[in-house]
Hints:
By secondary structure, the chain is α+β, with helices and mostly antiparallel strands. The protein is 23% helix and 23% strand. Strands 14, 15, 16, 18, 19, 20, 21, 22 and 24 form a 9-stranded antiparallel sheet that branches. A 6-stranded antiparallel sheet has the order 3-4-5-6-8-7, with helices on one face. It has a 3-stranded antiparallel sheet with strand order 9-10-11.
Amino acid sequence: MAERSTAAVDVADNSGDEPLTAKADQATADGVAQKPERDTESDKAQGSGGIEETEKASPPELHSGHKLARRYRLEECVTRLDGFSSWRAVDEKLRRAVGVHILPADHARARSVLAAARSSALLGDPRFVQVLDAVEENDLVYVVHEWLPDATELTALLAPGPLEVHDAYQMVSQIASAMAAAHREGLAHLRLNPNAVLRTSSGQWRIRGLAVNAALRGISSDTPQRTDTEAIGALLYAALTQRWPYESDAYGLSGLPKGVGLIAPDQVRAGVHRGLSELAMRALANDGATASRHESACTTPEELVKAIGEMPRIRPPEPAFTAPPEYQRTTYQQGTYGRPAPHPGATRAVPTPPAPLQSRTGKALKWAVSALLIAALGLGSWQLADALMDQGNSDNSSPTEGTHEGTDKKQPAKSVPLKIDGATEFAPSGSGIKEDEVSLAVDGKTSTSWITPQYKGYPNFGNLPNRKDGSGIIVDLGSVKTVNGFDITMYRSGQTVEVLAASGGGSSASELSDFSQRLTPLTESSKEIKGSLKNPLRTRYILIHITELPTDGSTELFRGGISEINITGS
Length: 570
């Protein structure tokens, strides 16, 4: 039976401490696929943990048009399996498409599904498809999650061929970083496959099925970090080769030939990037592969993120240049507009142009040029005589005490990147937002970001009283430096931002009033804010001040952030 991906996962606690997000079953967020996933593509093909045997309950009798909580109208059933069903629905209150998983309240997995959904909803990371609601009502348990109509799953992206090198690099970087953040909160995926990875129209990679889908399937693992790391390695392998790194076919991809084992991607297809090929093998080394160059295997998403950071950065390809079409003169430009066409076979007489500069205009031009030349010669002679007289006066005068030859002209100071000694969150009310993630905006990588939580109803940080002055990041240059430029990459465009600097002699700056020097006006910005100061200034502290956030998948939800901050000076 065909189904759409609804992958989710129970999470094992590797740290020895209880997960931060819930005391219930460890779990994750969930989404709805755009293409069906065959039921024959088992967890063995994926390389994930085993499936817990449970007694199957009958799926609830629902139909298109049925409403849940007088709000969610069911539109299309996309999955019906193991006693649960998944639907595309409409949230009539907010007028948006959503996805809904439904199962009977007496289903053997109902408790774990609710715990998984509520745990993943607390994560609030925009790199995952967000859980919007988890309810038990009228003998039903249902989980509501985002529906992304503009997103395409990796399965569809790989149908025509492997990804470009830069796309594969961006995919593994963002997926590994997101899963590392999830595991830090005690959440795992365990069914991370090409159906669970989406690319939006803006180029951002998102993961669906964090915890909820594994709970729906009853999947668990004693080593969740290792399972998810191998799954990321399999995704990268598929992106580079258009092959699934196991013997069985899965997710529309052909498996490897039987009996050859797990060979490196650059041995499967010519032209594969060597660094990414080795990275895929390091992530898959736990499943029998051999890491190249005797490098250690990556057993956790955090180790994989570190390995990606040690690689040379892969830049996007240069845009292809298309030569403009050859210039074609029109009949009007050729002087034939409004004239009768010549008879066939007739030869048109071509008028002989006058000799150069023999017309009245040419003669006037000659006189004008001659007058200009005479004036130029006179002016040059006068300036030469004046310079000779000045030189004679200079020779007769004695040098002034304290002057030195060659020191009268100063070379402009060279602009170089300034070292950022530290960064803190701008929190004038005393309460921060994501203070532990501020370093991600000054780590030299645009793939990592300081991201605000999601605010509802108002773009000015939810119109909360403690956010009346907005938020942002204050960078500390360590001491007073001469600043002449900045290059700031925002998490997304559409944020209302200004760049401010504190007065030069300040020993600290934390309030908005401390930043009296304005580097940019307060305005809605693009994703990159770059500028050079005509008059360099002396300061130690720079504030990137955000007052309003752009929408985040809905006209009622708002989120923003900063990806990277660079300051230049001398």
